[in-house]
Recover the amino acids of this structure.
């Protein structure tokens, strides 16, 4: 399937008869996901370039007989590349794809997947259970996605939910070898004098936001009906790494609501994902 996708999309760059189809595919993708369609023309152009390069580099596999069409692959590519749009200068947008160069495969399932899990408690007892997943990003390995969740991302943007951006946020987080909610940061970031100091500053600010969010979730769970659950997915309270991924998906699909709910968190993400553009 991938070789066919690569031939098709590479032809659009050099043959007129392919351009019309490429335009239809692209415009159809924008229409399906309003958070992409509302980007300014320059950002949409850069996203299109990144998406095409992404399609040439990655391999798509459909699980259990699912046929991955070109429109499905493009939908994943566009959403995966959205966090990269402002990460590099306009003159070299392709350099941003280096954030995703640790893997090739993307596996699409029709819906959520039941994964076998194993955990050992403090007494040394091993517990086995099954976990329902709509996506999973493995360090140095492929990304798994539920197609039904990918396809429905336009409708779920209002609630800040986007499985593609969530899993690719994990990929960005894991670039330094650890999923801890802190992507690799350069010296000078947040006024730091070293990359180490930048990391310390980021983790301090993220932890403060995470603690506030977790306290609100705990209060809402304890006093159901009296205390309102936060707007962002409560799953973010599982760990700082999940908080980061949930916050990133919310930031890109419903930035205004995130800014209203958590201005400090919104601005922290903006400082990384839009370094030259400023907050949305």
């Amino acid at each position: 399937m991938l070789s066919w996708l690569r031939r098709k999309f590479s032809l659009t760059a050099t043959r007129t008869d392919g351009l019309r189809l490429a335009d239809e595919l692209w415009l159809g993708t924008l229409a399906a996901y309003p958070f992409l369609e509302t980007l300014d023309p320059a950002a949409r152009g850069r996203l299109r370039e990144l998406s095409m390069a992404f399609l040439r580099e990655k391999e798509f596999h459909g699980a259990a007989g699912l046929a991955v069409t070109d429109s499905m692959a493009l939908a994943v590519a566009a959403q995966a590349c959205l966090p990269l749009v402002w990460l590099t200068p306009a003159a070299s947008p392709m350099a941003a794809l280096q954030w995703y160069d640790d893997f090739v495969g993307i596996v699409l399932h029709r819906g959520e997947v039941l994964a076998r899990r194993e955990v050992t408690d403090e007494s040394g007892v091993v517990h086995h259970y099954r976990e329902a997943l709509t996506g999973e990003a493995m360090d140095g390995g492929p990304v798994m996605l539920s197609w039904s969740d990918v396809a429905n991302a336009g409708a779920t943007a209002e609630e800040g939910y986007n499985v593609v951006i969530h899993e690719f946020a994990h990929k960005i987080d894991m670039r330094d070898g650890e999923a801890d909610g802190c992507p690799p940061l350069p010296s000078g970031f947040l006024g730091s004098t070293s990359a180490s100091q930048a990391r310390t500053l980021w983790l301090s600010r993220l932890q403060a936001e995470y603690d506030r969010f977790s306290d609100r979730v705990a209060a809402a769970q304890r006093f159901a009906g009296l205390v309102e659950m936060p707007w962002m997915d409560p799953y973010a309270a599982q760990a700082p790494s999940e908080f980061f991924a949930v916050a990133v998906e919310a930031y890109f699909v419903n930035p205004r609501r995130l800014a209203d709910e958590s201005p400090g968190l919104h601005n922290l993400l903006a400082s990384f994902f839009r370094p030259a553009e400023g907050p949305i």
Remarks:
- Residues 2 and 157 are 29 Å apart (CA to CA).
